[in-house]
Amino acid sequence: MDASGTPSGWPLDDRGPAYGDGLFETVLLRDGEPRLWAEHLARLARGCRVLGIPLPARAELERPLAEAGEGLAVLKLILTRGSGGRGYLPPTEPEARLRWQLLPFSPAAERWETGVRVRHCRLRLGIQPALAGLKHLNRLENVLARAEWSDADTAEGLLCDSEGCLVEATCMNLFWRRDGRLETPRLDRCGVAGTLREALLARLPIHEVDARPETLESVEALWLGNSVQGLWPVIRLDDARGQAHRHWTITPDHRALQAEAHDLLGHPLPA
Q1: 168 an active-site residue?
Q2: What is the pLDDT of residue 8?
Q3: Euclidean distance between CA atoms 158 and 170, whole angstroms
């Protein structure tokens, strides 16, 4: 097993940068302790089973934790199939390659407090159930979607699949309250099953549903969340041209789900 925190350590024949043949995890560290570590390890293990990549020993995955100091940081783990194979054909006995990066982190606390403005994206995600839920290295769809806007006032973009069903935001999962019921898009055809989403599904009665953009016309509250940033209340939704489409006022309902999410991550709850 080749493991290193040196970004320059990629051989030119590594299948990760060559084909996107690998997985990654982005983990919030608080004073060196990983949050939602069990969920991150479980998702990585699922991805390894699907792709047929050997899962590193837990000690290898936890090695970079010893390098983290006090305060908040983000650990990015990248696992590839390694080198080998002919063209797209993977090697029969892959030797996985693990890399990592540690960066200091300061959350966008004002977004917790005052909420965010988001927009619909024009790009549509391809439907591929075999990869649905995995955090694999093929993220060009998200890159293209994120390139659709550049104004700093827009925090995120909402994505639908090629059949028009809501899936996620470019780097966050979606949650909403409709008729008093918490819901989140079903992710059995595409999208990333975030670890915060997984933890909240295990903790609360959140229903996975098939929904289209017009569903958001009737929701009482809307949130975006991931395991690093926590949960952001949405106060304005724009269309794909950047024109205001729907507004919300932050209510105690927003704070209630935010409290559950931030308890899992150790983030404070806005006053």
Answers
A1: yes
A2: 56
A3: 7
